[in-house]
From TrEMBL:
Pfam family, one: DAGK_prokar
Protein species of origin: Zhongshania arctica
Source taxon at top rank: Bacteria
Residues spanning the membrane: 58-77, 98-119
Keyword presence, Metal-binding: yes
Protein topology in the membrane: Multi-pass membrane protein
EC number annotated for this UniProt entry: 2.7.1.107
Protein name (record): Diacylglycerol kinase
Free-text function comment from the UniProt entry: Catalyzes the ATP-dependent phosphorylation of sn-l,2-diacylglycerol (DAG) to phosphatidic acid. Involved in the recycling of diacylglycerol produced as a by-product during membrane-derived oligosaccharide (MDO) biosynthesis.
Length: 123
């Protein structure tokens, strides 16, 4: 069953507005998102310099952007859990811990790709 609402270009415009609203909320309320975004602004130009070909540059850029994406998802999970209840519940803690683990894995992936490409370039 289709959801009621706007369709076509109007729906796309609405989705764009909601996405910007989400980015503003993450920037305003999530310290980790601000830190990772600022680091991404530094790392993205470095990725262009560090990578020696399009494949390497793509890997460097994708892994940095992936960290920011996973942080947004983690922040959304935390917001929903906190909205339901701020009292401690094992499943709430589990959901938050799993989101945190996803961020950690994306950071490790990013660090390992950057390290391998840097080693290949300089050694």
């Amino acid at each position: 069953m289709n959801k009621p609402g706007r369709t076509g270009p109007a729906r796309i415009l609405d989705a764009y507005k909601y996405s910007l609203k989400g980015l503003r909320a993450a920037w305003r309320h999530e310290e980790a998102f601000r830190q990772e975004s600022m680091l991404a602004l530094i790392m993205l130009p470095v990725a262009i310099w560090l990578g020696t070909n399009a494949s390497q540059r793509s890997i460097l850029i994708i892994t940095v952007v992936l960290v920011v994406i996973v942080e947004l998802i983690n922040s959304a999970i935390e917001a929903v859990v906190d909205r339901i209840s701020t009292s401690h519940h094992p499943l709430s803690g589990q959901a938050k811990d799993i989101g945190s683990a996803a961020v950690m894995l994306s950071l490790l992936l990013c660090a390992s790709c950057w390290t391998m490409i840097a080693v290949e370039r300089f050694l």
